[in-house]
Amino acid sequence: MLTTQTHATPLGDLTLLSDDQALLGVWFSDQKYFGAGYDLTQARTGTTSPLEQAGKWLDRYFAGAAPSPADLPLRPEVTAFRASVLQVLRQVPYGTTITYQQIADQLDRKALTRKHAARAVGGAVGHNPLSIVIPCHRVVGSDGSLTGYAGGLDRKVALLQLEGVVL
What we know:
Number of helices: 5
Strand content: 5-15%
Order of helices and strands: EEEEHHEHHEH
Radius of gyration: 15 Å
């Protein structure tokens, strides 16, 4: 059974989605790709252990702590390619950034090939169903520019500033 919960943050309310075992989604209500294809009208409103853990994780994050995505049971339901991109994002340390090209290069090294384009990585980053928890806001352009963020560029700036990234 899917369960949703709303969690208040300084940047607006987040909708959290889980089943009984794992966190499946974290979205700002006005962000692109809200719901990631789930029919949220079919989910019950309530709480689960993963939702409780996520709420505490988010509170620590917005208080300026650096909780790890590994602290939560996560199960993003995405394609194999998107899962590989999200795995790279999970390793980006708090307070640092990475470029789309650097992600593509890491994937290429693992696959021993030159097939991953930064543009494809951008699509995968943009469709991250676990905003903030899997830190897609830490991805910047090759020149350091702040490129798109499904939750909005103002929120991306605020998240990076919270983490102490100098813009």
